[in-house]
Amino acid sequence: MSTDAQNSVPGADFPEREQTPSQSRIPAQPHTSRQSGAPRPTRTAAAIAGRTGGRLSGQLIRMGLAAGRGTPGDRLRFWSLCAAALAVAVVALAGVAAVATHDGRDARNTARGPLLSDRQHAVALWREAFDAVGEVQHSVIYVEPLRPGAASPPGLSRWLAPGEAMLSPELVRDGQDEGITSRYGRFGGTIAKSGLVSPSERLAYVRVAHDPPVTQDDSWWFVRGFGQDYPMGEALNGRTLSEALRPLGALTGVPALALLVLAARVGSRTRDRRGGLLQALGGTWWHRALVNLGEAVLPLAAGTALAALVLLPAFVTDVRLPPTGYLLDSGDLRSAWPRFALALLLSFAGCLAAVILLHRVGRDGTATRPRSFSSQVPRWRLVGCGVGVAAIACSQYAGESVDLAVFAGGTVVMWVLLPSVTAVASRELGKKFAVRGFRAGRAGQLIGGRWTAAPTRACEACATAMIIGLGLVCQLEAGNSRLGDKAAVAQASQARVGAGVLSVQSRYLTPPAIEGLARALPADSHIVSLQTDQPTESVLIQGSCAALRSLALPCPEAPEAVRSGDPRVAEIANWFGRNPHAQVADPAKLGADAFQGTLLVVTEHPRPGLQAAVERAAYARVPGITVETLGETWTVGAAEKARLGNWVLLFGSTGLALLLLAGSLGVAAELVRVRSALAPTAVLTGSDRIYRSVALWHLTVPLLISTAVAAVVTAWHSLFFTTAAQEGATFSWGVFWAAVATCALLSVLIGALGARTATRAAAHWRPTAD
């Protein structure tokens, strides 16, 4: 073995030990090397390896352990592998938690589903209705026992008394401001977890105060018990297991794997030299794998153990997931503990296998370092990025069935290839920096410019994370703000009139019920009826003279076209008919006509708690009645879509954090190289200012350029998304500038950290033989 080969390996890689003959290093049999320059493993090495057996394997593992503690950049590699193992293990545990939660939800939903029967064998009456608290809908289940001693629905310790209601804990918590505990009758307690698909479900069981008209009403079902799959409550909007696992894998799992790959390549220069020495000594891929195993086993085990600690609180209590608000059932997770243990073992084994397989020494002795373009970025990448931008701009002219697909495809292509454009721009600017630094005699600008112009991918990895991360933050924010045309109109109506106009609907509205409701309303509230004529697009407003005057309308005896400056009348016209007419109607006649029209409660001075008071009065007289603001159905639907978007935001933000961490690790590895390469320049310049200058031109400036490019593209892309691609979405400039400022601050901090580490390394630098 040559002297150069011996000097190429740091002493920390192979600590000096007193060895027995059986533990001596593997000799290399002289032979003619091939054109690749690296010798093949010899038969002598294989024979010795076979004789030494487990002792050699143990020694190689111990060598890997020592290398992990003593090589340059060892702390960076240790924490990188630890973070990667933690990320992969958390994703694996999240997948198991999704499966366990899905199984538990299905089991509880099946246990409470009604078993339909005929009247002869029925033990209870069952009926489902819907209500909302805020903009979140929930199910209201009406039950009426028919036989004493029959089993009550799961989650109820007893049958409800007449006029009593039991609510889920989450419904009680979220509906306190709306008086939910008194809306359906007397509050009888909370529903147990066994009757809820999840602890965060909103559900109410109600028993009416009087006997329901079951003989004439087909909405009441005869049931003989409970125990079949019937979607109700939160299960109505549930998603399949694959629909939950796909975004988890795509938005979080892929970034976790990217972090693992990058962490495995941290410190590749030292491992290349160590692998080259093992190859020169006749070692096989198995010997290199044992060394790499010893080097990676401790950080990977530490990261996997941290993931187990993260899971422990969810085993003890129900954990709420921000920003979704969903509560994980701790019982479901505890019942799946063998699957969690298996997931941790497979995660650890998978990470260890990935680290070993990614460290492959080629015949030229260099194969683990990140590859880069030898001279320039391929032209097809630049052309492809332009095609992606063109696809985004032209997507609005595509057909309605393919416009979203064209927009999404162009977005993916642009995001994937935009870092290449940034790399080209950075390298061209790096050349200009080097030329200007040479002409001006500024060594820092010269060195930093040449390093920036060199084909390295360390800073480009961080630039990629910034570009994609900034785009994802703004796109997710714009996507979550999307309401749709009807929902946007409904939200605007609620902002103008609020609870000043409430719609009251039920198939059980009778003249006595309407008269009783009118007497129970506040003094400044009135009931009016609407009759809509579709051909003429006119709406007839009927009510007492006091009700019409409260809307600034006249009191004609016959239908008459009217005008009013009251905003409530304008909103009624927007939702029910463009040409409002008015007529005085007798309350008894109003009740008879209400079956063919729409009933409204109008209030001159809406105030907080008004809708809750109207709902309480309505439910006391008519079970299953619906009381809602104008267009509330649309806002509830939009809120449901936004809550589903919160899951995408949860997985996407986690993936974004992993991408930024991966980019930061790439830059951290570059800092290790910078500090080692810059340390000798202190002898030549006599000042440490060159460290700050080189870090500025090599790290900060390229990253700031990437941030600027990402900001321009993201602003254009997001505005195009809100104005052309998706109506009703809004773009928050506050979120945009906060994200841009974060990326810019990260760029400055990276440069400052690079200068600081180089300065500290210079104080301890000494010339060496290599």
Q: TL;DR?
A:
The protein has 770 residues and is α+β, with helices and mostly antiparallel strands. It has helices at 3-7, 43-52, 54-70, 74-112, 169-174, 241-265, 268-280, 285-316, 330-335, 337-358, 379-394, 403-440, 443-453, 458-480, 485-497, 511-520, 545-550, 567-576, 587-593, 610-621, 632-678, 681-685, 689-725, 733-763, and strands at residues 114-116, 124-133, 136-145, 164-167, 186-190, 203-206, 221-226, 319-321, 326-328, 501-505, 525-533, 538-543, 560-561, 579-584, 598-603, 626-629.
The percent range for helix content is 55-70%
Strand order, main sheet: write it out: 1-7-2-3-6-4-5
Number of helices: 24
Shape designation: elongated
Range of strand content: 5-15%
Number of strands: 16
Provide the structure class.
alpha+beta
Rg of Cα set? 35 Å
Low-confidence stretches: 1-52, 363-374
Oligomer: single chain
The N- to C-terminal Cα distance equals: 16 Å
Mean pLDDT: 78
Structural notes for this entry:
With 770 residues, the protein is an alpha+beta fold. The chain is built from 24 helices and 16 strands. The strands form 3 sheets. It has a 7-stranded mixed β-sheet with strand order 1-7-2-3-6-4-5. A 7-stranded mixed β-sheet has the order 13-14-12-11-15-10-16. Strands 8-9 form a two-stranded antiparallel ribbon. Helix 11 (379-394) crosses helix 12 (403-440), helix 12 runs antiparallel to helix 14 and helix 14 (458-480) runs parallel beside helix 23. The protein starts with a helix and ends in a 7-residue tail after the last helix. The relative contact order is 0.11.
